[in-house]
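Q: My labmate handed me this sequence with no annotations at all. I'd like to see what the chain might look like in three dimensions before we decide whether it's worth expressing. Could you predict it?
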Amino acid sequence: MSNVLIACGKSIRVIIDFFYPPFRKFMTLQFFRYGITGAANLVFDWILYFMIYNFVLRHKMLNLGFVTLSSHIAALAIKVPIVLLSGFLLQKYVTFSSSSLNGRVQLFRYAIVFFVNLCISYFGIKLLVDGFNLYPSPSNIIISIFTVFISYFSQKLYTFKTSDPAVFQELQASPQSLKG
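A: Here is what I predict for the chain of 180 residues:
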């Protein structure tokens, strides 16, 4: 299974890297890859949330017996494991593939960062929907954009950090020095 994921990650990198040259002056390759994979996972997140909220839950409360969740929070809870896994796989095998940390360590760290962002999402959605009476789907989008910035730096500096000086130097290179 690992070989399949590595091969898929390499194929996705080749496609993403093909579109990189016009952006070379503005950002590093790693940041470009993060932007593309993160945007893809974010759009997947938004679509999944919309589908769960509108078509699975049909705007109704979710009674679990011991607790009842409002539909906008239940949609958030249902999408979490799916988006956690898809995001981790994209970041591990596409964006931060040079990290030498053990996969279990990466997943654990990724989950920590993910759940910090989830807490921000929970309280943000509660505030926007229940406090400011905004619609749930746009509220989810607003909060997601905010958490993207927190996530990138956390994943880069904590989850998938690398101790290889050559890789670290390449990742820190200014966009101007990446001209080929």
